[in-house]
Design goal:
Layout (H helix, E strand, L loop, with lengths): L1 E10 L9 E9 L3 E5 L6 H8 L11 E7 L9 H4 L3 E4 L12 H11 L4 H14 L15 H13 L5 E5 L7 H18 L2 E5 L13 E6 L2 E6 L1 H5 L3
Parallel strand pairs: 3-7, 3-8, 5-6, 6-7
Antiparallel strand pairs: 1-2, 1-4, 8-9
Helix pairs in contact: 3-4, 3-5, 4-5, 5-6
The protein binds adenosine-5'-diphosphate (ADP) (2 copies).
Subcellular location: Cell membrane
Organism: Cetobacterium ceti
Function: Probably part of an ABC transporter complex. Responsible for energy coupling to the transport system.
């Protein structure tokens, strides 16, 4: 069952003379874990930001073709509506913290959805426990190391109601050890929730041992490969 479908989709930023994404045809199935790879500047973040509505879709388009996420077309919806379909962890985490403490930050989505205090406390505990950050729930997110910040973002995204979780360069700013931990956590989230996971990463050598169903490679705004990691990287 397809949960995301790009059909002949192109996207151009207003201030650019050429489209950044060209004729994208891509179908992602419910529950898949997909890696979007490619060189810096190839359009990976733009593709992700078409999914979560961060790109500036304008009235007269900016895009051609169609993009469906379940039953919606994101360019027809507000970013708030889209966030119920696609949860995102961006690489610049500092801008993403909304709580004064780690606990408040992870609770944010639930509080916005009118969940009871007891239930929130319990859910935040479960999420923080999974990322091994329960003992820092009263710290300010700003005091944390890069790896801890990433873990808190991952705990927060677990509370998202969205069926699709998008991670844009989750390894940026992390040392190799923290990076491995973050990838393991994303795997755990995938396993526990069965959600559709999309990871954007150019440090492909750091993530290839992961259990991706599919790897999509983008170059200069076009999909140049879309296959299982076994087929793509098999050594002969
Ligand atoms: P990356 O995703 O490779 O870490 P960024 O997303 O920050 O890097 O930017 C990718 C490219 O897009 C860079 O070459 C940058 O100069 C360009 N870029 C980012 N934002 C804008 C913008 N508002 N206008 C024009 N170019 C931009
Ligand atoms: P990647 O994530 O693969 O590094 P991006 O999607 O960030 O690539 O950027 C692809 C191209 O899109 C960049 O070269 C840049 O020219 C352009 N771009 C990115 N963000 C913006 C923006 N906000 N406004 C205008 N152009 C942008």
């Amino acid at each position: 069952e397809s949960i995301i479908k790009f059909e002949n989709f192109s996207f151009k930023y207003m201030n650019q003379s050429h489209p950044t994404l060209k004729n994208i045809n891509l179908e992602i199935k419910k529950g898949e874990k997909v890696l979007i790879a490619g060189p810096s500047g190839s359009g990976k973040s733009t593709l992700g930001n078409c999914l979560n509505g961060i790109v500036p879709f304008s009235k007269d388009g900016g895009f051609k073709g169609t993009l469906k996420i379940k039953d919606i077309e994101p360019y027809e919806r507000s970013i708030f509506e889209i966030s119920n379909y696609v949860g995102t962890v961006l690489q610049d985490q500092d801008g993403q913290f909304v709580g004064l403490t780690v606990g408040e930050d992870v609770a944010f989505i639930d509080e916005n959805n009118c969940v009871s205090r007891e239930k929130i406390h319990e859910d935040v505990d479960v999420a923080l426990d999974l990322v091994k950050m329960k003992d820092i729930r009263n710290k300010s997110p700003q005091e944390l190391s890069g790896g801890q910040k990433q873990s808190v973002s991952l705990a927060g995204i677990m509370r998202s109601p969205a069926e699709i979780l998008l991670f844009d360069e989750p390894l940026a700013n992390l040392d190799p050890e923290s990076g491995r931990r973050a990838m393991k956590l994303i795997s755990d989230i995938h396993e526990k929730t069965g959600k559709t996971i999309i990871i954007i990463e150019h440090r492909i050598e750091d993530v290839l041992e992961e259990d991706f169903h599919r790897v999509v490679i983008i170059n200069e705004g076009e999909i140049v490969a879309n296959d299982s990691p076994e087929n793509l990287f098999k050594k002969d």
